[in-house]
Amino acid sequence: LLDAMGGQSASEYVASTGYYYYYTPIFSEDGLKVTGAIGGGYDFGPLLKSHQATFAKTYRIFFLLSIPFFLLLAYAVAEWVTEPISSLTLAAKKISDGDYTQTIKVNRKDEFGKLANTLMDMQTKLSSFQQEMEMKIKDRTDSLRAILRVAVSAREKNRLAQELHDSLGQFFASLNIKIEHCLRIYESNPEKLPERLKEMRDITGQGTDLTRHIIANLHAGASEDREIRSVLNQFLKNFTEGTGITYNLSADIRHPLEISYRTTIYHIVTEAVINIGKHSGADYFSIDILITEKAALLKISDNGSGFNLKEDIFNNLKKERKYGILSMKKRVEDLGGDFLLESSPGEGTSIKINFDFGLENGKTKN
């Protein structure tokens, strides 16, 4: 008001009360003198309170309505981020497990898409690398098997030479001792000479059997596959003759077999049958042979006394029999085969041999 009386219009708003004032001066007719002032005011308080209440109510309604929207927005954003991460994580796990067939479904052009493309490129390269390595491993394995067979064949020749030297050498040495003994007896005590001559006859018979065994072993290695059955039959017939032991031989030969496998199969059969005759007390045994393109299987079973496999079987076996079993096992494992011995007291014994050729045909040029 004082400002208006001084010739100036004035206004004021009191925020604490919401009241607004306005004043303007009144001039004389000549406009040179202030003769008074006129003004007024308006109380905005109730209006402001009403608007504030309306605004608060509107804000609450908007806030409540916006919660589902923001929740949906947050879920959409989370899905947008986690879906490609889940796909990439699954793909990475599959790749680490060696599965390179997993399709990575991330059709985006952002960083996730770039990462997915990188993983797919890596997956393709790893798959190609794996196939290449598998081919190299197969080639190396085939080469090693061929080398092994040559080595086994050479070792077999050395073994047969050693067997000739040891077995026949011992036989002739023993025979020579008996002959010298007979000469001394003939000079000092002739009446005992017939007894010593009988011993020499027995030794000579053993030498004959030993020679037949070695020749049959050599024959088995050199025989064709179709002759395996006849060679084994001849050996089994000679071995069981006069013993009271019967046998059954089943040989299903569907594919040619390399010499090292033929020799090993024959050796296993002869060694096992000799053990049956000497140690098992069996009166019957069976031999089953199956030879295909992918495998060679041999099973020898008897109805003898058997023994307890749960204990240390070699502690209770005779030295000769123990070495025979170890020899068979080593021969099979040298060719990459599996050797399984099964037995229990009173239930007999069985030997199972398995040569798995895989994609090979078990036959190479000799």
Give an overview of the whole structure.
This protein has 366 residues and is an alpha+beta fold. Among the domains are: 2-96, no CATH class; 223-366, Histidine kinase-like ATPase, C-terminal domain (Heat Shock Protein 90), CATH 3.30.565. 59% of the residues lie in helices and 17% in strands. It is built from seven helices and eight strands, in the order H-E-E-E-H-H-H-H-E-H-E-E-H-E-E. The strands form two sheets. The chain has a five-stranded mixed β-sheet, with helices on one face. Strands 1-2-3 form a three-stranded antiparallel β-sheet. Helix 3 packs antiparallel against helix 4 (193-222), helix 4 (193-222) packs antiparallel against helix 5 and helix 5 (228-240) packs parallel to helix 6. The longest helix is centred in the middle third of the chain and has 78 residues, at 111-188. It is rod-shaped. The model is unreliable at 221-226 and 359-366 (pLDDT under 50).
